Amino acid sequence: MSFAPPAIHSFLPPHRTLMGPGPSDVPARILQAMARPTIGHLDPAFTDMMEQIKSLLRYAFQTGNKLTFPVSGPGSVGMETCFVNLVEPGDTVVVCINGVFGGRMLENVKRCGGIPIVVEDAWGAPVDPSKVEAAFDAHPEAKILAFVHAETSTGAQTDAAALGEIAHRYGALTIMDCVTSLGGTPVLIDQWGIDAAYSGSQKCLSCTPGLSPVTFSDRALDKVTHRTSPVQSWFMDLNLVLGYWSGDGKRTYHHTAPINPLYGLHEALVMLTEEGLERAWERHRTQHLALKAGLEAMGMTYVVDEAARLPQLNSVYIPHGVDDAAARSRLLNEFNLEIGAGLGALAGKIWRIGLMGYGARPENVAYCLKAIATVVDA
Amino acid sequence: MSFAPPAIHSFLPPHRTLMGPGPSDVPARILQAMARPTIGHLDPAFTDMMEQIKSLLRYAFQTGNKLTFPVSGPGSVGMETCFVNLVEPGDTVVVCINGVFGGRMLENVKRCGGIPIVVEDAWGAPVDPSKVEAAFDAHPEAKILAFVHAETSTGAQTDAAALGEIAHRYGALTIMDCVTSLGGTPVLIDQWGIDAAYSGSQKCLSCTPGLSPVTFSDRALDKVTHRTSPVQSWFMDLNLVLGYWSGDGKRTYHHTAPINPLYGLHEALVMLTEEGLERAWERHRTQHLALKAGLEAMGMTYVVDEAARLPQLNSVYIPHGVDDAAARSRLLNEFNLEIGAGLGALAGKIWRIGLMGYGARPENVAYCLKAIATVVDA
């Protein structure tokens, strides 16, 4: 043997309190679900569970969309699944950018051969519907509007209903990123007229990372099944994925689904039905107000205006004189507390404090405020 | 609320014995590792673990390749990662097809804009090196050779060393599927001169499905970093993934890694070092011989010639007069035993019995033989 085995032992992770932009704290009940015995991906018991997950996700997304399922990959794969299926080469796509994840949408449009029309807003601001209206007015040929509902890089929430209305008036489909909103603030797919949306398991659903719930309207599906060019990705081609995830009797093998992570997602969604969406939204709002009161009492200010502020992602300016990296290191090492750094132009300037899913509870708020007060005072 | 919560409760899976083509039986130790507390994907403790996984995978693949890591998705994503990065539009690619997964490689080449030269062998036979030699002789412009080392659809193993030698003689890169071989039979990436290989977590590593270990040689990486066209997938673009998985100090956020499944893979790989690759290969061979003796005593015959037979995937013809679906249903319902059906042209004609990883042990062999004897006798 050319290469000897490395001397590495079992990994025992530290026990953190996760209050960054995700992953969020995962309750023991979900972790235990993930440790249940693995079964086959074509086992009737598994396919029954798949159908349950689809029903549960329709509730979470507030949609009747038949094609609602978890993509077997992280949110970025859910994002790419939406773009590679809906954007054909030459399609004009209005892409709204007000943070990191809008920028990723643009990157996806380009790689699919789409012609992007960029609508820009400041990082920390929501997408401005009047700019979107102007973009469609100038480009009535646009076939798709893509925007981020809850920008994880800034904590800003965009008026999805307004954007959905504009897109449909111009006969365009909508692709919406709701990675950070699903389960934390209202996501009303059908009411808003959203045609394709993707989320993540590790934010307000409090599951472990690695799965991306998606939903597609019949209009979106119609576009996918009538494409003139093949979908560039084999793995993400909905024409193939459908054969596996569709509930129409006979299932075709497509890929091996991540069985145990899906146990975790199932449990997370069952917990969401037990609490109820409205109560979950209310809990996020209440805990946000408590955290906000504490942060403001320390003199900290929010990046996002109150009207567009996400309760589950609190972006605040780092107080003057506080060293970003050193303070976050102390939080991690002395308090086992993770909060998020700024991204892109906001790196070194802001902190992102998550109150997502199971993390949105009084214990976490109190602990976080105490820890931050300690490192900011130093 | 337009959509009420469905009345769905926690999912308690049945306890199966998994002896199909994967997922294989997952030992409790790995399941327990997956239930450890979630930490952040940029936590120093997590990035330390990532480095360990990379070392462990280099041992499993028997390679010194720096770029060796688990793709955050099932084996099909690992496959697509190899093709979208290494195949540029217009590249001629020799693709060997001797089962389902060679066919998928062809599909990937087409979607990347490559020009496929297909080398076909019968399902159940290994790839014939003389045909590969002839293909390169006729197409010296071919830049890549793609083949499946262990065909999961048939149980045939191909001489990877011979194919690697031919490709390199013609100055081509090699892409190898070793989803079913890694950990079960020798996979010697460096010795065989393989430039890109992908595997799966749920076969002979006995982890849960959802991760795809990959490795790339410096020659392969050189091609990726000198492409003239962008990689069509944002998620799979190694130029971006490198910033996250490379061990060069500063890490760039790319996507949220599936933390808990990676705990499981880490544990599975630690277990592999404890046993040692040679002993694991020997165990697969020994259990295969025991299973083979029992199946042949029942009059069953193998699909694949002995010289090319994979010990971890036993494809046998279904005995005359036995109803495929009914027999497998009885195995599942009466014995909680999963074995695999035939795919494609072999559907209804063969069974695929896996002895993979933790599943390759005397208890499983004895139980499987007893169960099959019962349903075949009926």
Secondary-structure-based class of chain A equals alpha/beta
Strand-residue proportion of chain A:
15-25%
The end-to-end distance of chain A, rounded to whole angstroms, is 54 Å
Helix content of chain A: 40-55%
Class of the largest domain in chain A in CATH? Alpha Beta
Q: What's the mean pLDDT score of chain A? A: 96
Reported by name, the CATH topology of the largest domain in chain A is: Aspartate Aminotransferase, domain 2
Largest interface in this structure: A-B, 98 and 98 residues
Description of the molecule:
Two copies of one chain form a homodimer. Chain A is an alpha/beta fold. The first copy, chain A, folds into two domains: 17-23 and 276-377, Aspartate Aminotransferase, domain 1; 28-272, Aspartate Aminotransferase, domain 2, CATH 3.40.640.10. Chain A has 13 helices and 13 strands. In chain A, helix 1 (28-34) runs antiparallel to helix 10 and helix 2 packs across helix 10. Chain A starts with 16 loop residues before the first strand and ends with a helix.
